[in-house]
Each structure stands twice: as structure tokens, then as C-alpha cells.
Amino acid sequence: MTHPALEPIQSVGRAVLALVRAVGQGGYLAAGAVRALRNTDIWAPHILTQMYQIGVASLPIALFVAMFTGIVLALQASYTLTGGVPAYFVGTLVGKTMILELGPVLTGLALAGRVGGSIAAELGTMRVTEQIDALETLAYDPLAYLVVPRVAAGLLMFPVVVALAIAFGVVAGWVTSMGLLDMGSAQFVKGLKIFFDPFDVTFAMIKSVSFGLIVTGVGSFFGFHTVGGAEGVGRATTRAVVVSTMLILVLDAFWAAVLL
Amino acid sequence: MSIELLDVHKAFGDKEILKGFSLTVEDGETLSVIGYSGSGKSVMLKHIIGLMQADRGSVHVDGKDVGALGGSGLTELRRNVGYVFQFAALFDSMTIGENVAMGLHRIPDMDEEEIEARVRECLSLVDLHDVCDRYPAEMSGGMKKRAGLARAIATGPKYLLYDEPTTGLDPVTVKVIDRLNIRLKEELGVTGIVITHDMDSAYRISDRIAMLYEGKMRVVGTVEEIRNSEDPLVRAFVEGRPELMEGVS
């Protein structure tokens, strides 16, 4: 019987142990996935399908988020930049914010739900219905068959989706500026160009590649380690989305601190 | 000997499932493993194909220690072993034809035409016709089970591990599966381990029957020896009479 005073310490200890175990399992999965890269005959045929599922099929939600972000950014910039601030700074703010922050992060968060949740649910269902075991018995490395194509597709397609989302958001801000803010196209473009630094795009792409790795890797991890039936799949899916979301925000701060 | 489990221990957390289980299966024989639900029969079977690792003890297939096999060794082992899952474990995103073809795609130098012919042959062996293009969700439980069996035999394995292959099937299909099992053994020399609760089926197909009880081997013997066993636990199970178990440990 534990003394009531010790229960909080035990809870902390259990949480630390669970975290250490999860990190260990994650490292093991990552090492296995790297080793599985040599089985090109298993994973290569699935790359295009996964690129479509993860990238192309995510475009509607990513562009929807980007469009409204661009509109709101233009309106809020116009509202904030009053007095002596030139109107073309609306273009600057929309461009800089979409490229450096909101384009990659909001797209990452939207895809954490759509892609990460979907991967965790799919692999989790395969785990609890023994389909992953069946793959192994048929001499397939399940990491090569299931994880490698998803992570590779995430690494390749997240930058593409983010780049399109940024472009769409900026265009939405531009159209809003012309339609609702009485700004000329030239003014908006001037603001867009004036502080533009090509490194901003590199920064956005680096972030989006890391988000792609996190979302597909975390989704695969929780799906792969699902236990229990339907409830376990639900739990794995929720955890994948929550952990991906948190890691995206942590990585966002990390890249800002390291690269800017 | 072909398959040998020596003093295998396996626990999940605090729950010890196998407590020193040992079993030897000779080449070309069919051995049925019986035992109460939750006694660890499926866990035992998964050790043979390397889906689970023993905490203690060892599992040998063709003299090779399964626990010590690396990636390529396990792949090689699995090419020789077919596994029939309790709930079929068909890939639900694939058609039945694609499911059965999965293992065949891992065989070098087998072209698509040969694969297609082999898929049809295996499906017809389990009495499934015109189902190649159907998805598992469109099939009954019994049909899925037979498709799972077709997938397991497609690569022509030397060993077949069956996890309750006839549970939930109608009597006619049970006979079809049993006949196929006997045919695989007699014509192709396939060694089989069958987990079953169906004693009629076990008596029909088995050379020997083993009983797993509380994580250990309770008894192993020929069909006649099991039929005539005086062990009250064995009798309770095979005769379906729980009253015989009273006071037994």
C-alpha cells in the first residue's frame, strides 16, 4: 500500500518511464525504417500512391486554410497599420507572415489532423486486426511496406503543399487588398518585394520538411504501437494528432531560434 | 525434427502466458494443439514464425534458432512457413486476389501470369470461385477464413501454422478444410500445427494431439491416446464436460 504522500511522486515516475519507453520505441522504429530503406522493391512501388494521398489529397484543406489566412492578414494589417505607415506595408506583412510563419505552421497543423490522424488510424487498424503480423508472415518488412513510403512521401510533399499554400495565401491577401482595402496592385506588390529575402523561402521549406517528418513519423509510430481494439485505434489517432501538433509548435520555435 | 520449442516462457506485463512450454513436431506430421481459451496457444504459434520472441527458452525450426535470426534469416524462414490467422487478417484495402498474390510477389522470377494462375488454383482449393475481385468486406466470415488459408498455402510452404482454421465455419466447409489439410500433408509432405477447439476435426486430421494448460504442456499423444486419456482435464476438454475438472490442478 503506497503512502498517499508518495502518490504524486509515483505518478511523475510513471510518466517519466512512459516517456523514456516511448522515446526508445521511437528510436527503434526510426532505426528500423532507415534499415528498411534498402528494401526498395517493397517500398518504391507505393511512393506515388502515398504522395497522392499525403500531398495532392491534402491540397483542398491546405489551400482553404491559406486563403482565409491571407484574407484575414490583409484586413488586420490594414486595421493595424494606420497613421503614417504606408499602405504598401500590408503586402509586406501578408508576404512575410505567410512565408515565415503562417503558411508552414497552419498547413502543418491542418495536415497533422488530416495526414497524421489518417496514418495512425490506418496502421492502428492494421495492427489490431493482425494485418501487420500477416505482412511479416508473408516475408514483407512492415516498416518498408508501411512506414518508409509514408514518411518519404511526407518529406517530399509537405514542402510542395506548403509552397502552394503560401502562394495561395499571398494571392488571397492581394485580392483582398485590391477588393476591400482600396489598394492598387502595384502598392501590394511593392510591399511584398521591399523586404523579400530569398532565405525566407528556404526557411519555410526547411520547416515544412521537418513538419512532414514529424507528422508522418508520429502517425506511423502511434499506429504501429496500437494496442486494444477500436478504442485503442481511437486513442492512437488522438495521440498522433496531439503529439504532432505539439511537436510542430516546438519545432517552429526551434527553427526560429536557430535560423533567424 | 522440424519444429522444436524448448522451455519457452512468455509474459505480458505481470501476466505469464507460457511457463516453460516444450513441444517437438516431426517432419511431415500434423499436430493439433488443444487447450482452453486464453491458455496461450496463439502466443505459442507466433513464436514459431518469429512474430513474438520468447522471454526465456528457445524455438528452433529446421535446427535454426528463430530468436537468433536477423532480418534476412527471418524472411527466409517465413518463405517456408504459411500462417493461417484466427480472424483471417486479410488486407482490407486489397481484393481477395491481391491478398492471395501478396506472398507470391516475394518469389523471384514469378511472372504475373503465373501468379494469377496460382491465385485461382489456391482459391479453388478452398472452394472459393469468382471472388478474385471482391474485397474482404464483401465476404462472409467463413469465406474470409478460407481466403486466408488460400493466401497461406499460395507460396507452397513446408510448414503450415493454423490458428483455429475451422472455428465459425459450417460443417461442410470444415470438411473441405480438413480434406485440404490432409491432402497437403499426404501429397506435399507439409508439416502442420493446428490450433483448434474442434475435436472432431482434430481427430480427423491429426497424427498427434497436444494439450496446453496453464502455460505448459499437459499431455501429448496420438489420437487414440488422447481419446482414451484418463487425465480428467483432457477428458473434460475433449468431452466438453466441465464437471470432470472439479478438484483438478
What labels describe this entry?
heterodimer, A: about 260 residues, mainly alpha, globular, B: about 250 residues, alpha/beta, 6-stranded mixed sheet, 4-stranded antiparallel sheet, about 35% helix
How would you concisely characterize the structure shown here?
The complex is a heterodimer of chains A (260) and B (249). Chain A is mainly α and 260 residues long.
Descriptive account of the structure:
The complex is a heterodimer of chains A (260) and B (249). Chain A has 260 residues and is mainly alpha-helical. Chain A has one domain. Helix content of chain A is 83%, strand content 0%. In chain A, helix 1 crosses helix 7 and helix 5 packs parallel to helix 9. The N and C termini of chain A lie far apart (53 Å). Chain B is α/β, with parallel strands linked by helices. In chain B, 35% of the residues lie in helices and 24% in strands. Chain B is built from nine helices and ten strands. In chain B, a hairpin with a 2-residue loop joins strand 9 and strand 10. The longest helix of chain B has 18 residues. The model of chain B has no long low-confidence stretch (mean pLDDT 91). The interface between A and B is medium-sized, with 15 and 25 residues.
Count all strands of chain A and give the number. Answer: 0
Q: Could you report the average pLDDT of chain A, rounded to the nearest whole number?
A: 94
Tell me the domain tally of chain A: 1
User: Shape of chain A, please?
Assistant: globular
Reported for the largest beta sheet of chain A, the result is: none
State the share of residues found in helices of chain B, binned by percent: 25-40%
Biggest sheet features of chain B: 6 strands, mixed
Order of helices and strands of chain B: EEEHEEHEHHHEHEHEEHH
Radius of gyration of chain A equals 22 Å
Largest interface: A-B, 15 and 25 residues
Helical content of chain A, roughly? over 70%
